[in-house]
């Protein structure tokens, strides 16, 4: 009896584990890749620059792109990057700057994955740049399910593809030479810190209010008036000394980073006030009460959406950076 009970318990555990895996792998749970934070600089549309040599070595930008797609859609497959020089066609595969993503166009779930990823590639970014991720990755053209999108003819959108292979078992991506060699902004500028304001004696305004609340959250006691005067400077020096930084009284990247703390729903206090002041400067209309409730959470989520970030309503280091660099 004891053995049977043990077996039954194991069976229940096994079923639970299987269910968890199924939930995690469900196509409905798939989301497109997270877009890193970028500045306003963006790549020009890649010109049409077809294969003209043979160098069948997978290029780093193509390997990185493949990894991005397969990590995002782990149930999909890889139909290859390089093709032999003996292949008669003109194809960027022979230069290692094309990738075939295994997608079955006849499968609704697979087609949805491709549609989602392609929509993500061709979406307009927070700065108003059209086809932003495709440009940042150096995508030159895409062929899937009887249609082609070319960066050199982007104004025409998706066009009917008239080649002999309708591409119904894979999505073909060709890359510019810059994209293939990781010279485009996706690779060179991703997550570069936005400029931190240099806040010091004589500074005024929102940055100073945010700073004063954060100093109070860190145990200092300053009046929040938006004026960086002698008392604020003294508090900054004391904070810097306590945190092992040079006590120069100037708040730049290092001191800002030390001051920031993650806040989220349910938190209270001066760090929440700092976030509320910063959010109000971006157009929110929050009461600065130091209570992180539903309204503050919604304001953070809205701010995250406009910056192409997952809208989880948490003021994490990235959100702080966007808030402070933007105020
Ligand atoms: Zn191909």
UniProtKB/TrEMBL annotation:
InterPro entries: ARB_07466-like_C (IPR058593), Peptidoglycan-bd-like (IPR002477), PGBD-like_sf (IPR036365), PGBDSf (IPR036366). Keywords: Signal. It comes from the Bacteria. Residues 1-30 form the signal peptide. This is Peptidoglycan hydrolase-like protein with peptidoglycan-binding domain. It comes from Catenuloplanes atrovinosus. Residues 58-171 form the ARB-07466-like C-terminal domain. Residues 204-259, 268-323 form the Peptidoglycan binding-like domain.
